[in-house]
Amino acid sequence: MKKPSSDKNHKNSRHWIYDHRAILIIVLMFFILVATYSYIGYRVPILDEGVYVGMGKNMFSSGANGFWERFRPLGMPFIAGLGWTFGLDPYSFTKIIAILFGAASIFFVYLIAEKIFDKKTAIITSLLFAITPLFMYYSDYVLTEIPSMFFILAGIYLLLCDRYFIAGLMGGLGFMFKFTQGIFLIAAGLFLIIILFKPGSVHAEHKKFGARFKNFLKKGIILALGFMLAITPYIAYNYAIYHPYTRTLYDATLEPIASATIFQDNAYQNLQVNTFGEKVYGWLYYLINLFADKSFVCLLYLFFFVFIYLFFKRKMYRKNEHILLMLMFATYLVYFSSIPYKQERFVYFLIPIAAIYTAFALIEIHKWTIIKDKKTRKKTYAVIFIAIVAAFAIISVGIDASFVTWKNTHKPVFVKDFYEYFKENNITGTIATGDVVLAIYTDNKLTNMLELRADVEGKGSRNISAIFHADYTYPCLDEACIVDKNKFFDEISQQYNLIKNESCYSGNCYIYLKK
Questions:
Q1: Exposed, middle or buried by CB within 10 Å (0-12, 13-18, 19+), for 369?
Q2: How high is the pLDDT of residue 204?
């Protein structure tokens, strides 16, 4: 006979599932659709995916396989390496985990919207977020944006629930997937400072400044402790790995994080901003990608500006939950807009908050259209605005198809000819390459072209047995570089046999084996 408490818990669980059936269906459908689409056709992995898989193999083999980049966070390599250790294909395994993170992110966006507004707004938010093409497009990539976003969304929800320690823990875990998620801690700190100087923003017993300051310190310390707890294993790992080669505690523990900051300014991938117009575009880059991307769904985010109007008109800035969300939105936007290195996927951290407020604006506009009194001005404006967006949507709907039709129907020939060459031909030993996507296709230890140069010039001892080179990994911007590159490959030809030289990507790929 079941205990009454067990029956009650079972009944409560069924009630919770029934009460949240809409969001559970959205999350489940998202996972099924993205996971299914992930295995239709063939997508060639990108460089960063190769990095995380290669690091995972290196982490779980004590350096015998894959390769290492010290300025990367350990979250995604840990997942890839864990799957590889258990005999799974690390790339496929990590793709599924990434999709799960995406599905869970939708659920937390729902919880945040429900906490701030209501269930209707939450459902529309989650649906809008789930079908945003940019989000769906990268959902099965082995990249850090979506997993780290999941932890940040969980952290925001926990802040709204006044659970600062676990919120800090979630922020720290987000940081372990992407270092720029440290912005979460900055935005949360700014939120606490604003609350400190905002009388009447907390419970009555905290209205006096002294009590508010005490509350500020308590929450700030608890938040920071949670964050530090999450990153302590990373700091300890850094110390264990790097302290034999460094002179100070800082170099051994935090220098890998500091060295990652140089990639805010990436000469080969920076957005070029020379003229005044280009500089303005640089600052508006992420807003343009969010609100004016070539996509039907992204056009809906134009309704976000309706919310901005309501935000000030209804004085929503007085409410703590809106202060928190807008601070998160603004802090991420300012940071990513200010650095020269830009990619469209960095806009991820703006999409969830924009979706919440866009959903709210859509509901408010719907209310305006059904006003039955004589004041029809708002109704007229709403109908005109909807008509304009709909017109743009009709124009762009065909473009949306590119998100599901761009992949190769079959595995490209160059994948088999180059990436899979080493495994199929049982090539052992260390491989030098500038194209680390290779790490997905082979378990060999990999090293970079600088180490190869040291070996070729007699200054290294890597015992490199093979080379995989792709033209795009060694770009030259001046004549001196071209001369030096040609000289380098002449030296390589003296010690290695050229096995393959064929077209791949936008240039040629080469395979060399040791003579």
A1: middle
A2: 44
Give residue 206's pLDDT.
Answer: 47
Burial class of residue 281, CB neighbours in 10 A (0-12, 13-18, 19+): middle
Mean pLDDT of the chain: 83
Model pLDDT, residue 345: 78
d(C-alpha 152, C-alpha 146), whole Å = 10
Distance CA 67, CA 53 (A): 9
Cα–Cα distance between 430 and 417 in angstroms, integer?
Answer: 19
Give the C-alpha separation, 20 to 260, whole Å: 41
pLDDT for 203 equals: 47
- 374 to each of 88, 177, 250, 378, 490, how far by Cα in Å? 66, 55, 69, 11, 83
The one-character DSSP state at 429 is S
Burial of 489 (0-12, 13-18, 19+ CB in 10 A): middle
**Ramachandran angles phi, psi of 446, nearest 5°:** -115, 150
β-pairing verdict for 430-433 and 446-447: parallel
Please give the average per-residue pLDDT across 86-92, as a whole number.
Answer: 94
Closest CA to 63 of 442, 445, 437: 445
Domain residue limits, the chain: 265-403, 413-514
- Taking only the tens place, the pLDDT of each residue in 165-190 is 999 999 999 999 999 999 999 999 99
Long-range contacts at 477-483 (CB < 8 A, ≥ 24 apart): none
Predicted local distance difference test score (pLDDT) of residue 251: 73
Name the percent of the chain lying above pLDDT 70: 84
pLDDT score at 87: 93
Contact between 139 and 146 (Cβ < 8 Å): yes
pTM to 2 decimals? Answer: 0.87
Question: Which helix or strand (DSSP H or E) is residue 49 part of?
Answer: helix 47-59
Helix then strand then coil, in percent of the chain rounded to 5, is: 70, 5, 25
